[in-house]
Design a protein that fits this description.
Number of strands: 18
Radius of gyration: 20 Å
Order of helices and strands: EHEEHHEHHHEEHEEEEEEEEEEHHEEH
Distance between the termini: 46 Å
Oligomer: single chain
CATH topology of one domain: T-fold
CATH architecture of one domain: Orthogonal Bundle
Mean pLDDT: 87
Structural class: alpha+beta
Largest sheet: 8 strands, antiparallel
Low-confidence stretches: 1-21
Strand order of the largest sheet: 2-3-7-8-11-16-17-18
Strand content: 25-35%
């Protein structure tokens, strides 16, 4: 059966930057944009001279290219790809960046009972959302079981020492996929770069992960908007003021394809080995860092509405969920999220 690829780039589609109300006077805001990790990045800076534009763009792109060369599963020579290709059980040296992102992934993975699982790569590839091509037909139960056998957070460890960091796997075929966290990590990394450049008022995004510091050119907190979860229109569902926090949205409505008459989401449930099919279509999380927000939103999307609500309340997370009931979208927010919400 013919398949239609509707895999739109994960720019700030799950998260619109409100250009008209977050930037103040255009002459006081320097905005830079570019491409990375199969998506786009955007940096808005208040009170930064236009003469710094070229140097800042070069520094930003250089750092993002370095992050991509380290974390990508699409580049066969990346640090992560080399780890995945190596079948040895001995610890493999990695950078502090890699150790940090895996450590956070394992923490959130355990908190979500494995719903956020960076070892789900074999299943991601099986369903056609990794470097491999999309399947011509729905994978068989045997194929799914074989891929699931190569997954499991318990097979991955981060080792820290005074002379470095290492990743270790006790399952030779373990395949780590950091795409669910890469945008959040890169966003935080860009924020550190801007701080080193003496810039303290900015809004940074890589794909759907956003982080703010300070205020916009009007002296107000940076604002962003959560998109209505549909690929048919660009409409705002809710607006928030970040107050120096990170925010990230995971959704099942942008990155998918049609196979055998069914919509196949890019979000895979590690427990079933299959793309999610429940009614939760969007999960937004506000956290101290974009990396943390980027990890939680995926885990909550896998869990579905009721389990996601319970976990958000248990962990005191700032969460905004949107579920589809018939032709209607129904939203729910935790008390912590309500503190950021801009009242309409």
């Amino acid at each position: 059966m013919m398949r239609i690829q509707i895999n739109l780039p994960l720019v700030v589609l799950a998260m619109f930057l409100l250009a008209g109300c977050d930037q103040g006077s255009p002459s006081q805001t320097l905005v830079l944009e570019g491409k990375t990790m199969g998506t786009v990045w955007r940096v808005s800076m208040a009170g930064v001279e236009a003469g710094r534009k070229i140097a800042l763009r070069q520094a930003i792109q250089k750092q993002l290219d370095a992050d991509d060369a380290e974390l990508s599963t699409w580049k066969p020579d990346s640090t992560l790809s080399r780890f995945n290709q190596n079948q040895r059980r001995e610890p493999q040296p990695v950078s502090a960046n890699m150790a940090d992102i895996v450590t956070e992934a394992l923490r959130i993975g355990h908190k979500t009972s494995g719903a956020m699982n960076i070892t789900v790569g074999p299943l991601v590839n099986l369903w056609g959302f990794g470097p491999d091509r999309q399947p011509a037909r729905t994978p068989s139960e045997a194929q799914i079981a074989a891929a699931k056998a190569l997954t499991g957070l318990q097979h991955l460890r981060v080792l820290q020492g005074v002379d470095g960091q290492w990743l270790q796997k006790d399952l030779p075929g373990l395949y780590v996929d950091l795409s669910t966290l890469g945008e959040g990590f890169a966003t935080d990394h860009l924020a550190r770069l801007l701080e080193q450049q003496g810039i303290s008022n900015y809004l940074v995004s890589v794909g759907g992960a956003v982080l703010s510091r300070g205020n916009n050119a009007s002296g107000q907190p940076w604002r962003v908007a959560i998109q209505k979860p549909t690929d048919r229109e660009n409409a705002v569902q809710a607006r928030v003021e970040l107050h120096g926090h990170g925010i990230s949205t995971a959704g099942s409505y942008r990155n998918y394809y049609e196979l055998d008459g069914k919509r196949i989401s890019h979000i895979i449930d590690p427990a079933t080995g299959r793309p999610i099919e429940h009614r939760l279509v969007s999960a937004t999380v506000i956290a101290t860092t974009a990396l943390e927000a980027d990890g939680w939103d995926t885990g909550l999307m896998v869990l579905g509405s009721e389990k996601a609500k319970a976990l958000a309340l248990k962990e005191h997370l700032a969460v905004y969920l949107i579920s589809k009931q018939g032709d209607q979208f129904v939203s729910w927010m935790s008390p912590q999220f309500a503190a950021f919400l801009i009242k309409q």
